[in-house]
Amino acid sequence: MAFILIVGAGRVGSSVARSMLAAGHEVSVLDEDPLSHERLDAGQPSSWEDSGGRFTIGAAIERDALVEAGIEQADVFLATTDGDNTNLTIAQIAQKMFGVESVLVRVMDPARAEWYEAQGLQTICPTHFAICEFQQRLERVTGAA
Amino acid sequence: MYAIIVGGGKVGLNLARELLDAGTEVALIEQRRDRYLTIESEFAHVVQYGDGTELWVLERAGIQRADFVIAVTGDDEDNILISQIAREKYLVERIVARVNNPRNRQYFELLDIRPAFSATDLILRLIEHEVPQQGLIHLLDLPEDHLEIIEIEVEAGAPADGCTVQDLDMPDGSLVISVLRESGGFVPQADTVIHAGDEVLICLDPGLESTVTPLFTT
């Protein structure tokens, strides 16, 4: 069982949080918007906390908020806020200031994702996936014609 | 010299104006459309529209030949990214970054982004100078150059009160460089006697402050 800290409870962050909790991991979520908590509860038989999840309200870049959310104990850190630069900054904070072993960061811009990947961060670029998927499907469509 | 300024707010705008007056070649990058249009009426081709954290925007501005990249947006994460990319990807030699929230200064230091300046810190420093805490003022802090200069007012009954400079038990790496008293400031000799009420300027290695201060205070 791993302790996973997820910063940013949007569509991606909250879905991953729920599936990781269901898989038996310890999951803590940090988001600055108190209402984002609803995404963690949506469609679930019991509330996020009743299911064993943790939720902290605070800014992603605030050291105190990160500590409160458990960054010092985290084995895995996921940066999934809606800001690329915020994600890239907090990922480096997790890595270099708190020594989190495994850090994954969502970056929408393929150029920044590629460069930071080369610098040693594990980046996930949804835009890149979309582009590849479109290209593959278009090849199938145009190839068949 | 070519300087790229990212962020066309009050800081970036006035900086661009001053640098242009001084004959520096400047590009100013602003991502807000409305602000860009306002600035463009004054600066014309100097200002470029775009997100200065996008690599192609920086490349379009000619970051490869920039001597200076100055990140002064209102967002600390943006300033961190711009500085990091400028230095490490485009090998720009000189960076200046603005810290909006002093609490984020630790992250600039963590990622080795210097110099990073914060208006809040500067104002706090000025307040400290006007209203000193425990009679100690930081006059200069250059951590990179391993140098610090402080000013202390000598309290009556402190070890230094009535003591000559040479008999003062100053730790290695610290030196009294100036004494200010009513008659004016002067560079002390080994046999200069320090009195209560004097203000002494001390040059010291960072970290020695807590050893030096007790010699002048009670």
From TrEMBL, chain A:
Coiled coil: none annotated. InterPro entries: K_uptake_TrkA, NAD(P)-bd_dom_sf, RCK_N, Trk_Ktr_HKT_K-transport. One of its GO terms (cellular component) is plasma membrane. It comes from freshwater metagenome. This is Unannotated protein. PANTHER family: POTASSIUM CHANNEL PROTEIN 2-RELATED-RELATED, TRK SYSTEM POTASSIUM UPTAKE PROTEIN TRKA. The lineage of its organism: unclassified sequences, metagenomes, ecological metagenomes. The keyword Transport applies. SUPFAM superfamilies: NAD(P)-binding Rossmann-fold domains. Keywords: Ion transport, Potassium, Potassium transport, Transport. The keyword Ion transport applies. Residues 1-131 form the RCK N-terminal domain.
Automatic annotation (TrEMBL), chain B:
The lineage of its organism: unclassified sequences, metagenomes, ecological metagenomes. Keywords: Ion transport, NAD, Potassium, Potassium transport, Transport. SUPFAM superfamilies: NAD(P)-binding Rossmann-fold domains, TrkA C-terminal domain-like. Pfam families: TrkA_C (PF02080), TrkA_N (PF02254). Coiled coil: none annotated. InterPro entries: K_uptake_TrkA, NAD(P)-bd_dom_sf, RCK_C, RCK_C_sf, RCK_N, Trk_Ktr_HKT_K-transport. One of its GO terms (molecular function) is potassium ion transmembrane transporter activity. It comes from freshwater metagenome. Gene3D superfamilies: NAD(P)-binding Rossmann-like Domain, Regulator of K+ conductance, C-terminal domain. Residues 137-218 form the RCK C-terminal domain. This is Unannotated protein. Residues 1-117 form the RCK N-terminal domain. One of its GO terms (cellular component) is plasma membrane. The keyword Phosphoprotein does not apply.
